[in-house]
Amino acid sequence: MRAHGITEYEVYAIKYASVERTRQSNFLEPIDGDPNALMPLDFFVWLVRGAGRLLLVDTGFSQISALARKRFFLQEPAQALSALGIQVEDVSDIAITHLHYDHAGNVKQFPNARIWLQEREMAYATGKCMCDLKQNHFFALDDISVVLKRLYEGDVRLIDSMHSFAAGIEFHRIGGHTDGLQVVRVMTTKGWVVLASDAAHYYENLEKKNPFPAIYSKADMMDGYELIRQLADGEDNIIPGHDPKVCTRFEPLDLPGAHIYRIA
User: Fold this and answer.
1) Which helix (DSSP H) or strand (DSSP E) does residue 68 occupy?
2) What is the pTM of this model?
3) Are the beta carbons of 112 and 89 closer than 8 angstroms?
4) In this predicted structure, what is the pLDDT of residue 100?
5) Can you name the residues that pair with 8 across neighbouring β-strands?
6) Nearest to residue 197, comparing CAs of 210, 213, 181?
7) How high is the mean pLDDT of the chain?
8) Domains of the chain by range and CATH?
């Protein structure tokens, strides 16, 4: 339900890469049907625009990272933004949902942006859990070093749990996938939208409470499903982090060479 007097923002999903996967590889628990059926995974960043603000949610990865990790690369997120008439210098704020390679690359391309990150995520990505190869292989050390450098330069805002960024934009720690994963809640003409990032990779992870298998805390992940449902005005307003269905459920913008979808 829309709140009186709160700014309503535009929200866009920007697809920049993809990779082929099988269905079972996207779920922790056994699934119905053919476990070897193809179930691609798409990579997105998101843009929130309104009231003179440009908030980029996540920064994606580069073509070099795509080659290294064998991902099909469409375009740099910065190039997609330029199709919207937005230059990297225009982006004043970046919310990094978590520090995995596909969400926290390219930070150095945005020189004027403040970076909003959960303090627990920074501690997680630089602490003892990174001695575990099963956890650290989702991170790129070069990306972490850029964020640390920006921290020392005073450009990173470390936050704890829920943070009200502006009237109609909130950051909420969920955890689960990583210890400090956060989601972004945005007021729109459709009501509250939750950019869930990897709190729910696919709609089906959420619907069946069967999470993506990359997990720091399963208990936090399951609690997170309930919290994002509470934060959103209906499940249609929950936007998963990697589901190709986003590209069919929402209107594509008619911009040559760009893969941008209007969420609200």
Assistant:
1) helix 63-69
2) 0.97
3) yes
4) 98
5) none
6) 181
7) 96
8) 10-262 (3.60.15.10)
From first CA to last CA, the distance across the chain in angstroms is 14
Q: Are 167 and 175 in contact (CB under 8 A)?
A: no
Q: How confident is the model at residue 4 (pLDDT cuts 50, 70, 90)?
A: low
Confidence class of residue 6 from pLDDT cuts 50, 70 and 90?
confident
Rounded to 5 degrees, what angle do the CA atoms 77, 7, 85 make? 30
| CA neighbours closer than 13 Å in the CB half-sphere of residue 149 | 9
176: left (phi over 0), alpha (psi -120 to 50) or beta: left
Q: 3-state secondary structure string, 148-204?
A: HHHHHCCCEEEECCCEEEECCEEEEECCCCCCCCEEEEEEECCEEEEEEECCCCCHH
pLDDT tens digits, residue range 40-69? Answer: 999 999 999 999 999 999 999 999 999 999
Query: How far apart (Å, rounded) are the C-alpha atoms in residues 21 and 201?
Result: 13
